[in-house]
């Protein structure tokens, strides 16, 4: 029996009647961009995320870029970013002309280490861009304290952690502005590309609305040089359906993760996910770490178990960032994470027998 890493088809077919009704509503409306479906989803998502405003955009990368633009961060500025993250975090900083300044993660959580941030702050530093990686919140309360002390802005990247908590506060509600992706594989996934920005600042929300729509509030009248990055009516309607099920699907992810925790604990040379104190995870992925990662992945593939490496090459070693002159060894924790991590199957609706096979095969490899 083959066990897929992720089964998006089954996740979405579980809601097919609601999704089809949403599609028909949009089709029959005759209005496909910037309409009632977008406004409804923005209102519902801001309520879910305990933020005053939500603004839908085309994708997660645009959400980060427009957040930086709204904060007027650009050429000559520096933005502190994690050394361990998907490259989109760095790309957004580069696209506005600023420079990404990497900070190592904590080995235990894989999220940016707040204790290392201050040493990277200088007169050019304008913002911190922490990422809630793998489904758990970064230590955002500590990061916000540092930012407030140094008068810096915080853009919280919440693409992987909708619904996670840190000391009782929701991910995506900490930063001055918060960006998220609804890429299909995310916990709240669209049926295509989509993204959003949340904030408690009406000024920033209005700035994003102008920037996403060619720099215009009124058609043909352009206040600034904007872009075309609008969350369309269809994706907004589909996301609004899936938002209703996010809490129950999160509970399912956490239930499956607990089974892995209980069944895989104590295996020598296998590290399981760990949360920072006061923070939990919504398990966008369930990631294990071992010095035998490549051999484990090869074995599981041969046994019909799908896996993914998040992420095999850290941003500082990517060809795209060769101009920054980073080399192997500059960020050893990020590099070790890249060499040792493996994501194993976990998703809402995952059959019990599939998880049992994953556990059996992992134990079989180590024992």
Please render the helix and strand layout as text.
Blueprint: H1 8-13, H2 16-29, H3 36-48, E1 53-57, H4 60-70, E2 78-82, H5 88-95, E3 99-103, E4 125-128, H6 140-149, E5 153-157, E6 165-166, E7 169-170, E8 177-181, E9 195-199, H7 202-211, E10 216-218, E11 221-222, H8 233-243, H9 246-264, E12 286-289, H10 293-302, H11 332-340, E13 341-344, H12 352-366
Parallel strand pairs: 2-3, 2-4, 4-5, 5-8
Antiparallel strand pairs: 1-9, 6-7, 8-9, 10-11, 12-13
Description:
Helix 4 crosses helix 5 (88-95) and helix 4 crosses helix 7 (202-211). With 367 residues, the chain is an alpha/beta fold. Strand 2 (78-82), helix 5 and strand 3 (99-103) form a beta-alpha-beta unit. The protein is 37% helix and 14% strand. It starts with 7 loop residues before the first helix and ends with a helix. A seven-stranded mixed β-sheet has the order 1-9-8-5-4-2-3, sandwiched between helices. It has twelve helices and 13 strands. It is globular, with a radius of gyration of 21 Å.
